[in-house]
Each structure stands twice: as C-alpha cells, then as structure tokens.
Amino acid sequence: STGTSLQPQLLIMVDFNSTSFHPATFQLTGFPGQEADHHWISIPFCVVYITAIVGNCTVLCIIWAERRLHQPMYLFLCMLSVNDLGMSLSTLPTVLGIFCFDVTDVAFDACLAQMFFIHSFSNMGSGILLAMSFDRFVAICDPLRYAAILTNPRIVRIGLAVVIRSFSVVLPLPILIKRLPFCRNVLSHAYCLHPDMMRLACADTIINNIYGLFAILVTYGLDSVFIILSYVKILRSVFNIASYEQRLTALNTCVSHICAVLLFYVPIIAVSIMHRFGGNAPRLVHILLSYAYLFVPPVLNPIVYSVKTKEIRKGISRIFSRDLL
C-alpha cells in the first residue's frame, strides 16, 4: 500500500519538473493582504503616472519650443525626461493592470521584455546623470571652452554611448533568465525585475548573481564614483572664486542636478541596504522602497527642474498665460 500511495506523487513531481522549465505566465503581486483595496490603491498610482507623464512632456515641449534653450544643459535634461517617460511607460501596463483591473498574470516573454526595459532605462538614467555632472564640471571649471567642448555632435555621441552601454549591459539578463528552469511563478512585485525572477528558479543561479553584480558595478558603481569626483573638482573651483555672490551663483546652477542625483541614488541605496540587512523588516517596507526606486525620479525630476530652473519656470508661465488668453 505504501508503494501505491507514493507512485502518484512521483508521477506528479516528474510531470511538474518536465513542464516547469518556462512557465507560461508569471503571477504579479500588488500589496499582499490588501487585494480588496486595490481599486483604491490604484488612485495614487494613477496620479503618479499622470504627474510623471505630464511633467516630463511639459519639460520636453518647453525646451523644444524655446530655441535659446537648445544648450547642452537643457539637451541633457531632455534626455533625462525621455528616460523618465520610458521608465514610467515600462511599468505602467502591469502596475495599473493589477491595481485597476485585477490582472495578475503576465506572459513569460512579456515579463522578460518588461525586465529588460526597466533595467535598461534605470541604467540609462545613471549614465545621463553622469553626463549632466560632466556638463556642470565643464561649465564651472572651464567656462571659456564650454561651447567648444560640449558641441551638439558630441552631445549626440554621449547620448548614443549611454544608450548602447545600457542595452549592452542589460541584454544578457533575459538570456540568462531564459536558460533557467522555474519551480515557482509568483513574483514579489507588480512588475518584473531580474533579482525577483531569478529567485523563482530551481537551479543554480550563481552566473546570474555574478553577472548582476558586474552590471551594477560597471553602471551605477562607476557612474556614482565619477559623479562624486566631478563635484569634488567643482567644489574646489567654486571655493577658489573670490566673490561670495559668484560662488553662490555657481553652486545654484548645480542644485537641480544634485537633487536629481539624490532622487535617483538614495532609493537604490535604500533598496540594496534593505535587501541585505533588512530581513526582519515588514514586507510592506520592502515593497514601498521598490516602488520609490522606480517612481520617485520620474515624478520629482520635472518638478525639481521646474522649481529650480528659471528658464523652465518662464516657459511654464508662458504656456499658462497663452492658454488663459
């Protein structure tokens, strides 16, 4: 009787292993235990997406319409706004799908595509912030050669280099995920990320872990180091300026970029620390930090630049005054 009772279980295990190499779908997770309130939770997410899309589109329209804003600083800001739009649109289908329509399933290949674009736009954001720090470095440390160094063709090449680097670094991730067999298919978030998908595999993921660490070091790691070095040199140049008013003016040109850097890197650092040392923290804290990592920069970047940049403020005022007339 013991043999007959074990035989069906063995058959189920063999059948499960033979069909679980690639699950047909992954199951997304919103806020566990709050499924009944997902429709209410969707309201702030809709506000976040509308704010991010309208804010970044407004910045792009103002810079496009004002020819005097076709300068390196604002061209890099355009890149950042396009990247923020890409990040928002990458997460929008699944996040609003789960909170607005209770759609929790996402196809395996669609999940891989979303993972690729989320990580690509995140890496591009880091590269663009590095390019913007180089812009501020040249503007303050070598102002006489600013126009000669940051020409339009060179800015285009910098933008292409950021895109190519990001896509090249992220491209192996879906390939590495696709080679893994999966025993589970329930993700921890309302979108697909490489670490989250990797944890569902029932095979050795050391290659994924090593490459993931390598990707982080050659993007966020190197970018953050060069950004810090740029500001060390900027501060040295500023403190060599005799006039207090000129020092303040020079530093004011960097405030918006410093805020953008903090908005980008602080959530990433917080998520990394929480993953490594916050094992006893409530799951809700992990979820909220992961949302902050993806949603805070696209929402607040256009607000910061609109508040701190006089030319952007004037452009917004002209748009509203034109509409009122």
UniProtKB/TrEMBL annotation:
Print the keywords alphabetically. Answer: Cell membrane, G-protein coupled receptor, Membrane, Olfaction, Receptor, Sensory transduction, Transducer, Transmembrane, Transmembrane helix
The family database entries (PROSITE patterns) matched by this protein are listed as: G_PROTEIN_RECEP_F1_1, G_PROTEIN_RECEP_F1_2
Signal sequence range: none
Q: Name one GO biological process term.
A: cellular response to lipid
> Which chain regions cross the lipid bilayer?
41-65, 74-96, 116-134, 155-177, 210-232, 253-275, 287-307
List the InterPro entries.
GPCR_Rhodpsn (IPR000276), GPCR_Rhodpsn_7TM (IPR017452), Olfact_rcpt (IPR000725), OR51/52/56-like (IPR050402)
Q: Does the keyword Transmembrane helix apply?
A: yes
Q: Which GO terms describe its molecular function?
A: G protein-coupled receptor activity; olfactory receptor activity
Any Pfam family the entry gives: 7tm_4
In the bilayer, the protein is annotated as:
Multi-pass membrane protein
Per the record's keyword annotation, is Lipoprotein included, yes or no?
A: no
Q: Where in the cell is it found?
A: Cell membrane; Membrane
Q: Report the family membership.
A: Belongs to the G-protein coupled receptor 1 family.
**Protein name, UniProt field:** Olfactory receptor
